[in-house]
């Protein structure tokens, strides 16, 4: 698989934010994710895109 899928706790750890904030970002479609069964996964590329977008907005 070319792209790693991250769990919500992994995203929380990488961004150093809480669970509800991660789900708020997903719900508002600022952070792309997929659902596999009942599990929510965030592609690593989507996390990189989110971070790049946040950096661009801050500049």
TrEMBL record:
InterPro entries registered for this protein in UniProt: HTH_17, SinI_DNA-bd
A GO molecular-function descriptor: DNA binding
Helix-turn-helix domain boundaries: 5-52
Superkingdom, natural source: Bacteria
Protein name from the UniProt record: Helix-turn-helix domain-containing protein
């Amino acid at each position: 698989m070319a792209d790693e899928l991250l769990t919500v706790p992994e995203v929380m750890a990488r961004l150093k934010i809480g669970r509800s904030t991660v789900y708020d970002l997903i719900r508002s479609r600022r952070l792309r994710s997929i659902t596999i069964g009942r599990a929510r996964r965030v592609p690593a590329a989507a996390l990189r895109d989110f971070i790049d977008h946040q950096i661009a907005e801050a500049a």
